[in-house]
């Protein structure tokens, strides 16, 4: 199973999504949050290896691949693995005006499922009942719709590369009972997770797999498998910024850049019964249907959006 999965995904090591915002990749800021720290390492694998070790290896691999792909402003929030609070992690991403926040984790299970075994003559704990990745987003994030959109893209890329989601967080159990909003893609809504709730950009927590599962730990320790995960994330970033995203920096239009196309203004609007169909100018950005992805700048009636800024037209 391990060898067939790696073999089937090995062709995905090269980015296949084409040129995604090539002109702007160096302007897009990706924040990679490596879950936990050296002193507070999180979960423990079936062989006794700390979660932080897995998180760091995937995070570092992802960063290197992003830099090679042209995302030269990608960075790791806590590269040294120091003990920093969740609030500090959020502040780092917000202060750097990141355009996307990805928190890398590896999963465990509830204690009731753990079974004792011996590895290298030492007692360890495992659970082979559950396997797979999980994606979390918060509906309290200020751009929750884009967080969910990125989560969907990521889930699609992972499943296309033969990875499967874990559904165990939805079990009606103390410590779980998470809101599974997309079962096929393994997406959960968890509103009060601080790092994805308080960031000012689209944000997800990505649990790469379950390290107390003995077979999955082998996969998650395999370089080729880790490369499949990293490439799936990068392909998702490419698609997201090409189709749905915008940066908070170079791609975001200010009002001085986002000039309206010629339309009838309120000063010349008709006072007849057709008044509701006369265009009204709003002091915002261009329509959300426009390539820049901003809010409506102009609107014709209450339901029909009209007009793109000159940059998007």
Gist of the model:
This protein is of the alpha/beta class and 313 residues long.
Describe this structure in words.
A hairpin with a 3-residue loop joins strand 11 and strand 12 (304-305). The protein has 2 domains: 2-243, 3-Layer(aba) Sandwich (Aminopeptidase); 253-313, no CATH class. The chain has 313 residues and is α/β, with parallel strands linked by helices. It is globular and about 55 Å long. Helix 2 (51-69) packs across helix 7 (223-243) and helix 4 packs across helix 7 (223-243). Residues 8-18 and 250-313 have low confidence and may be disordered. The protein is built from 7 helices and 12 strands. The protein has helices at residues 2-9, 51-69, 86-95, 144-160, 194-197, 214-220, 223-243; strands at residues 30-34, 75-76, 100-107, 115-119, 122-126, 134-137, 179-182, 187-189, 203-210, 279-281, 298-300, 304-305. A 7-stranded mixed β-sheet has the order 2-1-3-9-6-8-7. Strands 10-11-12 form a 3-stranded antiparallel β-sheet, with no helix packed on it. The chain is 27% helix and 17% strand.
Report the end-to-end length measured between terminal Cα atoms.
50 Å
What is the name of the CATH superfamily of the largest domain? Zn-dependent exopeptidases
**How do the helices and strands follow one another from N- to C-terminus?**
HEHEHEEEEHEEHEHHEEE
Nearest-angstrom radius of gyration?
22 Å
Please tell me the overall pLDDT: 80
Shape: globular
Number of spatially distinct domains: 2
Class by alpha and beta content: alpha/beta
Strand order of the biggest β-sheet: 2-1-3-9-6-8-7
**Helical amount:** 25-40%
Main β-sheet: number of strands, strand sense, barrel status?
Answer: 7 strands, mixed
How many beta-strand segments? 12
What is the CATH class of the largest domain? Answer: Alpha Beta
CATH topology of the largest domain: Aminopeptidase
Residue stretches low in confidence (pLDDT < 50, at least 5 long) are 8-18, 250-313
